[in-house]
Amino acid sequence: MDFVNLTQIRSMTTVTSKHIEVTPGVCGGRARIAGHRIRVQDVVVWHEQKGMSPDEIVSRYPTINLADVYAVLAYYHDHFHEIRRQMQEDEDLVREMQAEIPSKMPKW
């Protein structure tokens, strides 16, 4: 087993905090790429559900870089249950709103 010293842990934390921000009032207080409105959960959906590689994500969103995407994925795995809970809350809210507000689009 590799030994990780305190300096390495601090360095890893600094790298993640350089790329990830959580700001009350911005993106609902959800974790996001620093300086952007791209949430961690957005990148997770693109990567896990849509099958996009980190390179594909960067090519579609050129204002971010590979380090941002990999930092997001690391943050996600470090905060897995929190991010999944937030994603579920968002899905529940969408279903609730769909039930309360009927669509104005005609049903064919």
- CATH architecture title: Orthogonal Bundle
Number of DSSP helical runs: 5
The name of the CATH topology is Arc Repressor Mutant, subunit A
Secondary structure: helix percent: 55-70%
- Strand segment tally: 2
Main CATH class: Mainly Alpha
So what's the overall shape?
A: globular
Number of domain modules: 1
Which strand order does the major sheet show?
Answer: 1-2
Strand proportion, as a percent range, falls in: under 5%
Main beta-sheet strand count, sense and barrel state: 2 strands, antiparallel
What's the CATH superfamily, by name? Winged helix-like DNA-binding domain superfamily/Winged helix DNA-binding domain
Secondary structure category: mainly alpha
- Secondary-structure element series: HEEHHHH
| Average residue-wise pLDDT | 87
Distance between the termini: 61 Å
Low-confidence stretches: none
Radius of gyration, whole Å: 17 Å
